[in-house]
Target: Jasmonic acid-amido synthetase JAR1
Amino acid sequence: MLSHISKGLLMVIPHHCSLGSPSLPCLSVLGQHRESPSSCHLMMNCLRPHFKYSRLLMHLGTGEQLHEYPIGKGKALQFIYGSKQVITKGGILATTATTNLYRRSRYKEGMKDIQSQCCSPDEVVFGPDFHQSLYCHLLCGLIYSDEVHQVFSTFAHSLVHAFQTFEEVWEDLCADIRDGVLSKKVTVPSIREAVTKILKPNPELAESIHRKCIGLSNWYGVIPALWPNAKYVYGIMTGSMEPYLKKLRHYAGHLPLISADYGASEGWIGANINPTLPPEQVTYAVHPQTGYFEFIPLEKPKGQELENSASIHYIESDPVGLTEVKIGKIYEVVITTFGGLYRYRLGDIVKVAGFHNSTPELQFICRRSLVLSINIDKNTEKDLQLAVEEAGKLLEAEKLEIVDFTSFVEKSSDPGRYVIFWELSSDASEDVLRSCANCLDLAFVDAGYVGSRKIRTIGPLELRILKKGTFEEILDYFLSLGGAVSQFKTPRFVNPLNIKVLQILSRNTTKSYFSTAYGL
Ligand code: AMP
Model:
């Protein structure tokens, strides 16, 4: 049964099922493929530490952190979305962890208590059409604009996506607010009914939003301009979310970006206890009460010590306990939870940056899974991110941005090659894109890759440019499979078996450039 449950799904076991009940799914063991069995206990793991200790701690000022960003009586502009719930063949309710969280009455009560109640009604959060829900989140956020004290989404990706959408629909939103009539684009009856109740004609507000929008330069600082009482923008901004920081900073203007905690469907891991730090420097203090934590020490093979921490094949030693980790060392996180996961490998690589009392503070490095490999080369998602950042600098002169990116290993030709897909904010010149392909090729500094490129056992890297909206199509495909926007992370590597995503990428490719960096 477990194999039908994808990563990120949570099974909600009815209260009468106890641990050890024959109806419970088998437990995941050290070294197994990462999937997500769960129970009420695990769900509470997700809920309790995240909610009670992290967000409450963060907002109520239980540590030094909250005094930095006090919020008054108000609401939160939250881009949150529920996903489908399904009943498995065994009769168990399965849903994503975030959906489960948002459905809990305790979550909603708590959000009200900490002045972070979502502006949108539940019908918007749990609406069946993500695009309509997003439109209404923006609309409700504008209706309550003076009351909004923080802007939130689980991952930075959905924040950036929300404001990119805002750039396209802002005039429709103004019209809705001016006339007090919801756009015909919103067709889901439950969403229409709920939003219509709070939408009243307000020509002054519509006029003020219109004036502010046309006064902005390329949407810089749109968040503080339209939500003048917002104190910060909040969401997970580390790891695979780092590529969205630049765009998010642009929208946030002078507002601080606060990276939310480190957690997973399998259990909550750590809290960002120094929220004033920029997301690139954030560390997470492990919640020792979430479960039993172990850490697999990862050592770099001799001769590779100076390489980027992500770009190597690690040598593992026996797992060590929470208090036995060493500052500066790199580990993979293993968790045993009250919900029944036994020595479960999260697949995340972290570095110990220090200790908060006796609990380690972790810096998130990357997912462990290799993304790009043809023969002896090994490049992770972090290596790919760094290469894309490096090549992306060449676009700055043309005032262009990479909207999103992914990669693929083309092995059908001999020798195989890396293919990098980019969606750009606008068209770039041929010359610049050719230079970008060369720059990408040279930016993969892994010794296996460089050596293989020199002797041509790996072919020239190919940069493929995608039509605008391609990643939106990939997101829609992910949602059609029952995924949740709140947990969406752009796949940085497309597996050859993922035919559907490859079809989307190939259908939308407009141009292709081969690197000449190692000769023709
Ligand atoms: P999910 O499977 O949707 O619950 O996502 C959990 C995964 O998201 C974790 O195992 C990490 O890889 C990633 N993640 C969660 N929180 C953070 C964070 N604060 N920084 C970086 N990555 C994170």
Observations:
- The two ends are 51 Å apart (CA to CA).
- The pocket of adenosine monophosphate is lined by residues 7-8, 97, 236, 238-239, 262-265, 346, 348, 364, 367, 487 (CB under 6 Å).
